[in-house]
Amino acid sequence: MQKLFFISKHCDGCQACEAACLEKHSQSQSLFMSKLERPSPQPRIRVRQSGNQYWATICQHCTDSMCVRACMTGAMKFSPMGEVFHNPDKCVGCWMCIMVCPFGAIASRSEIKKASKCDLCKDEKTLPCVASCSQQALFYGTPEEYEMKVAGD
């Protein structure tokens, strides 16, 4: 199964990945016009800073996912490939998934009382967040491919 990996030593905190994600998940598909949308779109990846170090909060698509187990409506579920997906139509905004996620990767969209998380942009060949990262701090691939990439750095 492919996952989205973050390589912290490459990140300069530019937040281009957040902007690309926000644009992709906006109704207008425009970063500029997204500011006018209601409900406001949210990025599914968030970059934070601690001192001079950056890290990205992204869904790890856990194989034994606590958010899937905690979801009382079945809004959080596994895809046939094993990724964790969220169905907002089934979400009742109980926030149990948010409370149990050890990575803080699920956000509340309080305007619409729904949870929100990375959906791996399944309709895209290249993830917008990965394509927008000029520092190559994001990598989409298998754990084995990630290990080879990090070993080669």
UniProtKB/TrEMBL annotation:
The keyword 4Fe-4S applies. SUPFAM superfamilies: 4Fe-4S ferredoxins. Pfam families: Fer4_11. Keywords: 4Fe-4S, Electron transport, Iron, Iron-sulfur, Metal-binding, Repeat, Transport. Coiled coil: none annotated. InterPro entries: 4Fe4S_Fe-S-bd (IPR017896), 4Fe4S_Fe_S_CS (IPR017900), ET_IronSulfur_Cluster-Binding (IPR050954). One of its GO terms (molecular function) is metal ion binding. Residues 82-111 form the 4Fe-4S ferredoxin-type domain. This is Fe-S-cluster-containing hydrogenase subunit. It comes from Desulfosporosinus youngiae DSM 17734.
